[in-house]
Specification:
27% of the residues are buried. The longest helix is centred in the N-terminal third of the chain and has 18 residues, at 32-49. A hairpin with a 4-residue loop joins strand 9 and strand 10. Helix content is 26%, strand content 27%. The model is unreliable at 1-9 (pLDDT under 50). The radius of gyration is 16 Å and the shape is globular. The N and C termini lie far apart (43 Å). By secondary structure, it is of the alpha+beta class.
């Protein structure tokens, strides 16, 4: 379902800005580990979702959480199903959707502030996202957040979730590849 989201003041900058806790916050410039994970997870999610919707990285979404004003976020990787994208809408409505993605991946950087990461998770879930995947390359863990629970898994585990039927991602080979 597409919602009408009042647009907050947009701050354009490189790297991209996000609207967090009522103010613009610049995304942290990624290093190789961040870039590696973003590419790999976008490929995996894109392969899984090819016939189900659109997958992109650094894709801006306008989201209206239930607890506060509308804001825009730029997830590292996002998947939005065809069912949630407006049918027959102008190109701009798909370029910057006014609906939360179905699935979001956020890759932590050493300088990320926990309070802002948690705020993003809350905005996504409150705005309609089914699953937020937070990968911490330094700690070598992945935390899956949905509206019911959070589950942290380690580098030898497999990523699966009911919101992604048929998606299975073994983390160990990816961590091994990153370490080469």
């Amino acid at each position: 379902m597409q919602i009408e989201v009042p647009i907050p003041y947009v701050v354009e900058a490189e790297p991209a800005m996000e609207w967090l806790m009522d103010e613009p916050v610049q995304k942290v410039s990624p290093v190789y580990d961040h870039s590696f994970w973003q590419r790999k997870l976008a490929e995996e999610l894109g392969n899984w979702g090819r016939l189900r919707g659109r997958t992109g990285s650094e894709w801006r979404f306008w989201i209206a959480p239930s607890f506060g004003p509308a804001c825009y976020l730029v997830p590292d990787v996002a998947f939005v199903s065809f069912d949630r994208l407006p049918k027959g809408a102008p190109r701009d409505a798909i370029r910057e959707p006014r609906v939360a993605p179905d699935i979001v991946v956020e890759i932590l950087s050493p300088r990320d502030r926990n309070v802002l990461v948690q705020h993003k998770i809350n905005v996504y879930l409150s705005g309609g996202t089914e699953l937020v995947i937070v990968l911490d390359p330094e700690q070598r863990i992945v935390t899956l957040h949905d509206r019911e629970y959070s589950l942290t898994i380690g580098e030898t585990d497999i990523v699966t979730h009911r919101s992604m039927p048929g998606f299975v991602l073994a983390l160990a080979p990816l961590f091994e590849e990153m370490d080469v």
